[in-house]
Amino acid sequence: MTIQGLGRFGVWRYYSGFTPEDARELEGLGYSTLWLGASPGADLPVVESLLEATETQLVGTSIVNIWSSPAKQVAESFHRIEARFPGRFILGVGAGHPEHDQVYRKPYDALVEYLDELDEAGVPKERRALAALGPRVLELARDRTAGALPYLTIPEHTRQAREIEGTGALLVAENKVTLDTDVDRARTTGRGSVGFYLDLKNYVSNLRRLGFSEEDVTKPGSDRLIDALALHGTADEVADGLVAHLTAGADQIAVQVLDQDYMATLRALAPALAARV
Question: Could you say which of 55, 84, 222, 248 has the lowest number of CB atoms within 10 Å?
Fold first, then answer.
C-alpha cells in the first residue's frame, strides 16, 4: 500500500531524541520519514512539533505499545494529528515483549482486538502499520494495515517478508549503523545496543529462523550477528548494507544511528545513500 511521500530513507530514534531543528535539517538531507521508537504514549507526544517544523516529512510511531496505550485514546490522538497534518502521520502499533509487559497475553489475539478498536474509532487501514517479524503477524499486517515495520532484521528477512506481504503492502526495515572503521570499537558499540534484544524471545526466535546459531544469539552476540545487525565502516560501506534492504524488497530503510552525534552520521550518510537510488 503506497504512502505518499514515504521516500526511500527514514530515521529511527527514540521519540524523545528528535528535535524540531533536527527534523528540519533531516528533511533537507533527504530523510523523508522520522520513526519514533521507545513506545510513545497514547497522547503521541512530540509528533506535532516535528510536523510543524517540516513541510513534507512524514512522522511515524515505531511503535505504540498496545498494552500501555489504549486504542481509543490513541485513535483520538491520531485524528487530532491527522486534522492538522493530513496524510503525514503513520500510526505504527505493536505488541512489545512478554518479558517487559506484566499484562502480556497471546499477542496475536491482542493485536487483532486492538486493530478492531482502531477500526471502530475510524483510524483508516492505510494510515497505520504493524510491528511484525514472524509469518503470522506479517500476514496480519498485510491484511489489516498498510503493512509491516520489522525491527532488528537483516536483508534476508526483508526478502522473506516481502514474499509474505506481496507487492502492495508497506515494508519498512530498521537497521542500526555506526560510522566507524575500527572493527573492534564498532562491534563494541553494536553490542551495546543489540545485547538488550538477545534477552527477548521474539527477537531471538526470529534470528534463529534466519539461520543464526545458538552461539550467534547467545549474549553478547557473535561477531557475525553484530556485523549484520549493526552495520559499520565508511559511509559508502554502510550505505551498501542499508540499500541491500531496498534491493530485497523494502519500501524504505529506517536508519538507527548508534553514534553519539547522530546528526553528523546522518549528514555523512546522506550523499552516499542518494547516490545508490
Answer: 55
